[in-house]
């Protein structure tokens, strides 16, 4: 079965995008300071926190990459198990939330600088910019898929239009606009997924029809993946979520500790639901459309179910993609304006200068992300590459700051950061994956071990205490 574009779906998607841009215009008038732009003036309640965390985490990587692509390419069970990475990460963040809020820093580089100095700050700036631009690039492509299905235009043309929409939303109101549109999108997406699942299964011929039209291995525990192949897909999102600046900023943006905790719990429930429903739809899509680009699996099903349901699901998917792209683009630009410019180049910069520099960066990095996205063959590849770079270089030292603060040394932290970054970037591309191991299997563990060992060797406690004869 071929995917045929349906312009009727475009009307629903376009109507929703108009609403989102309207929220962006509203937020523009509410955003006056750098803190408003970066953490929404620390004014978010539990419902908005839950929605913005969910929509930010579950963007194009969920509806066109991640669990979606794994379910289509490898099987239902590995896609379902893939979702446990995010759930474990959310549980850890719930435990760390009081410390994160008490740290009183707006960005990850600021947190790292506190313990590892300016060198740690510079390294984290470079890694975050690299990783987040990669993440933004596949949000643009995901929106290109949506526009391809609804209008018939090429994915490249749709990607170009998507780039303009995402840049505009991020530049208008910062986190104030992103958080509220996130919340609306998250609830719409859950409704769309819940309603769409039975229609998709029926269209695929029921469970018997699906079973008859997918490879037998797709019902195995890991599908047609080996354990190491599955682990290489599972570990990067866990490493990213544990230290994702977007998640930290939303935790900081909560108005109260109680509201933040409630929002985190609701986020866990929402992600658990979505990470179950998305694989079901993508797995059924394999039976309906056996020759698709895996990234199109969920989106393609919207053309085969009742228009009003497909429209809601597609609008929500587009919204997830847009708000995630806006969030990561905004976060990377925050690092440049707050950490690089004000923190290192011009400490006397006014709040207004930082505010406008962030907006300018949104446009510049957005264009760069579009160009970068044209060089990766699939969304899943750029997704895993970006996650691995971030998870190997940022997550180990950041967790060390929270969990072994009294024993962490500057030399230990920097050694781990540098080793993690270098291995993540060169292991697959330059070294051609020695021993058949993916970068994430090597880079993050090496970084973590080096942080612990070098910190022990360079700490005062490592010096033997003189004893009497």
TrEMBL record:
Q: Give the GO cellular component terms, alphabetically.
A: plasma membrane
Could you say which protein family the record assigns here? Belongs to the sodium:solute symporter (SSF) (TC 2.A.21) family.
Q: Does the keyword field hold Protein biosynthesis?
A: no
Note whether Plastid occurs among the keywords: no
Q: Which UniProt keywords apply?
A: Membrane, Transmembrane, Transmembrane helix, Transport
Name the domain of life this protein comes from: Archaea
Q: What is this protein called?
A: Solute:Na+ symporter, SSS family
Q: Per UniProt, what is the membrane topology?
A: Multi-pass membrane protein
Which CDD domains does this one have?
SLC5sbd (cd10322)
Annotated localization: Membrane
GO function terms (MF aspect)? transmembrane transporter activity
* Native source organism of the sequence: Natronobacterium texcoconense
Chain ranges passing through the membrane = 6-27, 39-59, 79-101, 122-147, 159-180, 187-205, 225-243, 264-285, 305-333, 354-372, 384-404, 411-427, 439-458
């Amino acid at each position: 079965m071929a995917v045929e574009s349906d312009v009727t779906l475009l009307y629903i998607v376009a109507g929703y995008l108009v609403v989102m841009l309207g929220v962006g215009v509203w937020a523009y008038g509410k955003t006056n300071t750098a803190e408003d732009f970066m953490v929404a003036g620390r004014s978010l309640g539990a419902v908005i926190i839950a929605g913005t965390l969910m929509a930010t985490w579950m963007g194009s990587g969920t509806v066109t990459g991640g669990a979606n692509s794994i379910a289509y390419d490898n099987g239902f069970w590995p896609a379902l198990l893939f979702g446990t990475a995010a759930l474990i990460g959310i549980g850890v963040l719930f435990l760390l939330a009081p410390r994160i809020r008490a740290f009183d820093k707006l960005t990850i580089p600021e947190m790292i600088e506190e313990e590892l100095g300016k060198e740690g700050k510079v390294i984290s700036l470079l890694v975050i910019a690299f990783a987040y631009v990669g993440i933004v690039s596949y949000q643009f492509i995901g929106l290109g898929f949506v526009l391809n299905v609804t209008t018939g235009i090429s994915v490249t043309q749709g990607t170009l239009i998507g780039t303009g929409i995402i840049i505009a939303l991020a530049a208008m109101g910062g986190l104030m606009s992103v958080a509220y549109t996130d919340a609306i999108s998250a609830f719409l997406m859950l409704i769309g997924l819940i309603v769409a699942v039975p229609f998709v299964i029926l269209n695929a011929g029921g469970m018997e029809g699906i079973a008859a039209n997918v490879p037998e291995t797709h019902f195995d525990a890991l599908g047609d993946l080996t354990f190491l192949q599955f682990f290489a897909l599972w570990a990067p999102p866990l490493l990213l979520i544990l230290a994702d600046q977007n998640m930290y900023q939303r935790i900081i943006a909560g108005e109260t500790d109680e509201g933040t905790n409630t929002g985190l719990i609701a986020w866990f429930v929402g992600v658990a639901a979505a990470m179950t429903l998305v694989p079901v739809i993508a797995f059924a899509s394999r039976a309906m459309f056996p020759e698709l680009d895996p990234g199109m699996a969920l989106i393609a099903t919207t053309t085969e179910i009742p228009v009003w349901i497909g429209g809601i699901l597609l609008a929500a998917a587009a919204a997830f993609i847009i708000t995630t792209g806006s969030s990561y683009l905004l976060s990377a630009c925050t690092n440049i304006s707050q950490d690089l410019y004000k923190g290192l180049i011009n400490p006397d910069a006014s709040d207004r200068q930082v505010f406008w520099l962030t907006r300018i960066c949104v446009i510049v990095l957005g264009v760069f992300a579009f160009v970068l996205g044209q060089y990766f063959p699939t969304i899943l590849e750029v997704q895993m590459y970006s996650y691995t770079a971030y998870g190997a270089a940022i997550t180990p030292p950041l967790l060390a700051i929270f969990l072994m603060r009294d024993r962490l040394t500057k030399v230990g932290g920097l050694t781990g950061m540098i080793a993690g970054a270098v291995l993540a970037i060169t292991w697959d591309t330059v070294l051609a994956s020695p021993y058949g191991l993916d970068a994430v299997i090597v880079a993050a563990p090496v970084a973590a071990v080096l942080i612990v060992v070098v910190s022990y060797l360079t700490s005062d406690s490592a010096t033997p205490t003189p004893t009497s004869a």
